[in-house]
Specification:
Blueprint (H helix, E strand, L loop, with lengths): L6 E5 L1 H4 L23 H6 L6 H14 L5 H6 L4 E4 L9 H16 L11
Antiparallel strand pairs: 1-2
Length: about 120
């Protein structure tokens, strides 16, 4: 039985390069852009099955800590990259990071955030 994936810490991009990549982390720019009303279920539907446990772990961590990290901070700030319990990291483009943050907070606050709200 596989262990449940959790976020164990946050590191900067340079530190993240020392870790293997999780299956989560990709280009983006679709969330609530041409179609409003998207929520977490819509993000998961566009996420490969093997990446979903990482998506859920990241969502849980972001909500429990109230993090609102932008794509710019994710790539260039301190502690912007999540490290998971299996030692992997999720690195995204600015747009990709904006998508997951918009999906998390759109669901949590019932607002139509787009990836651009978390871009820079």
């Amino acid at each position: 039985m596989k262990k449940k994936i959790t976020v164990v810490k946050w590191v900067d991009w340079l530190e993240a390069e020392k870790h293997p990549e999780a299956p989560l982390g990709f280009l983006g720019g679709f969330f609530n852009w041409k179609k409003s009303g998207m929520r977490w279920k819509d993000y998961l539907a566009a996420t490969p099955a093997e990446a979903r446990p990482y998506s859920e772990a990241l969502r849980k961590e972001v909500i429990s800590t109230g993090k609102r990290i932008t794509g710019e901070h994710h790539q260039h700030g301190s502690k912007g990259v999540p490290v998971f319990s299996d030692g992997t990291v999720a690195t995204f483009s600015y747009r990709g990071w904006g998508d997951i943050m918009a999906a998390i907070w759109s669901e949590e606050e019932n607002e139509d955030y787009t990836y651009m709200d978390f871009y820079m």
